Amino acid sequence: MLTALGNSAATPESGLEGEVVGFQSVAELQAAPDAAVRGKIVFINHAMAPTQDGSGYGQFGAPRRQGPTIASRKGAVAIVVRSIGTDHHRNGHTGVQSFGEGAQPIPAAALTVPDAEQLQRILSRAGNRPVRMRITLTPRNIGTHQSGNVVAEVPGTDPSAGVIIIGGHLDSWDLGTGAIDDGAGVAITTAAAHRIMRAGRPRRTIRVVLFGAEEVGGGGGPTHFRVNNPTGNAVMVGESDFGADRVWRVEFSFAPANAALADRIAAVLAPLGIVRGNDPATAGADLGQWVRAGTAGIDLNQDGTRYFDYHHTPDDTLDKVDPVQLRQNVAAWTAVLSVLANAPERIEGITPAPPRQRP
Amino acid sequence: MLTALGNSAATPESGLEGEVVGFQSVAELQAAPDAAVRGKIVFINHAMAPTQDGSGYGQFGAPRRQGPTIASRKGAVAIVVRSIGTDHHRNGHTGVQSFGEGAQPIPAAALTVPDAEQLQRILSRAGNRPVRMRITLTPRNIGTHQSGNVVAEVPGTDPSAGVIIIGGHLDSWDLGTGAIDDGAGVAITTAAAHRIMRAGRPRRTIRVVLFGAEEVGGGGGPTHFRVNNPTGNAVMVGESDFGADRVWRVEFSFAPANAALADRIAAVLAPLGIVRGNDPATAGADLGQWVRAGTAGIDLNQDGTRYFDYHHTPDDTLDKVDPVQLRQNVAAWTAVLSVLANAPERIEGITPAPPRQRP
Fold first, then answer.
1. What is the pLDDT of residue A231?
2. Does ipTM surpass 0.85 in this model?
3. Tell me: the pLDDT tens digits for A229-247?
4. E strands along A224-295, which residues?
């Protein structure tokens, strides 16, 4: 069983059949001579395992993000990747990919993990004998249509103190219902802002933005940035977009002058079992642009251990939301907002944003 | 139920009774006036939750490491902390602490998590009414005795290429058997070196050091460093000391000139589901001194989600070792050694070692 990736071409209605050529990584595909790929269906395997911080998604997601373009450039007729997921159910994991310049769109799909493991076994046993596969994909490109951000504000008492922007995104992949990606983030940030509003007027305005288009590669986020920076006087950004499980770590992108502010936030989060991390906050897909431009940011990192069991699959449904952990998220965001919205000091980010270290 | 912490004073044989004064953090204890603490038994609570990377141990371990000294300086007659652990069993978590200069040793113990939660409930319900506790602790300081490191080498073919030092530690806390802390690390690194030895002679000598004294605050590690640096020509260090569960991440402290070497190591680890991290390696308690002095280091971070359920408790026993995950560790270390021991290039660390970023 398989599912089309974003921007995949369709196969003919009767399907597309071809010989399968398998690779264990994008690097292995990249290193292969074009002749080994031309006219074939490329398969890319990987060994993604669950991580609490979700860091496996970056590294092991390469087959989905880079595989289709490389396969197309080498003349493949289609590509199937092992789902970028950590479950063992017959549900494919879709997600966005874009064919790079000069790469002709080809059918591009994710096999479910059990099917990918089966195909790998078949290829391993076949040795030099050809293995053939027939796939049928029916995606249609219906062009660019209008979406919209939903914006709400808890007005502050001091307009000169700047605006805090938080939020999540409204769109989701078609296979599931988007309960954890990102209905949960929408609910968490809205509930936290509502609690602050109920407690009285904060010093700073809190803006909740529910972004209309994130999954297609970013639409609502960049648009909100373009319209509101720098005139909108935003001083702080943070997004909730990693499911509904508990916040386990907080990270900051604050100017050194705001070290005491970060200390106060870490102190109110510690009773919720939240540890303070050492890396700079990125503020997520919809708000990260602000941090990269020098606005202060905060990440409340959610436990991602089971996120990639459900993300972008038919299994992204409301029963995956654990109410106890959801409430811990709301408590954490409320605590953060209560400190940030009423902090007497100026809030400043890092300019330029610090690079991640490597190696 | 409770257990004595390292370097705790004993109570009288008949026990010690006193009024309990509770705090939610070390900072709260530190901020309290001495008069609120003098003559009392201090209790420090915390909210440590499991993390895959074990980062909660640093932050939430403060009550054990700093609490006894602060409580003693403020005139407390004893201190009990919520166990620095994440289980819910009636087993206390011990661990080292040292009374700072001018702090008179007092009885210092860890309550089991269920008992700490019960005490917190009692204190919360009591309001202003005094709560009294009787504790009996029987530790003895038997003075400093001799320990020893066990050192073995897989001799390399090229003495000028330098030595790779790996290992674990032999000592453990008295409550358990030390199966995961650190029998596992001893077994993993020894088995990996043995596999390399069986496969033929590597270019570089691999030295396995089983450190004789780590839990008391470092003895075998610093001694090996003092005797062997810089004359011993070590070019690479790495310790296994975080249980027996799977390696989920690799981190490097390599000079920029060794970026390609790090890439090759990350590539051989990816099929084991191991992700590449962005922070510098620290090389653990016994070998970290080398990295801080500029020697290259590698961390194979093990999954710590359940490590602090067992660590320093009577539950640290062999049944906690999952053979499948143990084998993944041996495979990872073997893969790392096979690349490092035969790498044609020079191996260099970072001088000075990079600081962790904050905030």
1. 84
2. yes
3. 888 899 999 999 999 999 9
4. 234-239, 247-253, 275-276
Whole-angstrom distance, CA of residue A291 vs CA of residue A209: 16
Give residue for tokens 């939750």.
Answer: B49
Q: What pTM value is reported for the model?
A: 0.93
CA angle A171, A176, A182 (to 5 degrees): 40
Chain B positions touching A23 (Cβ under 8 A) are none
Query: Taking Cα atoms as reference points, which of B247, B264, B224 lies closest to residue B345?
Result: B264
Q: Taking CB atoms and an 8 Å cutoff, what residues of chain A touch B305?
A: 52, 305
* Contact across the interface for B248 and A51, Cβ inside 8 Å: yes
- The four Cα atoms B259, B265, B270, B273 give a dihedral, to 10 degrees, of -110
Distance from CA of A144 to the nearest CA of B (A): 36
For residue B352, whether the previous peptide bond is cis, meaning omega lies within 30 degrees of 0, is yes
Residue among A13, A117, A214, A251 flagged as catalytic: A214
Which residue, among A52, A253, A307, would best test binding to B if mutated, counting the most B CBs under 10 Å from its CB?
Answer: A52
Write the DSSP string, B266-281.
HHHHGGGTPEE-SSPP
| E strand intervals along chain A | 2-4, 16-23, 41-44, 78-82, 108-111, 132-135, 150-154, 163-169, 205-211, 234-239, 247-253, 275-276, 296-302
Alpha carbon A100 to chain centroid, angstroms: 20
pLDDT for position B351: 81
Residue B153: active-site member: no
Q: Which pair of structure tokens corresponds to residue B195?
A: 């596999």
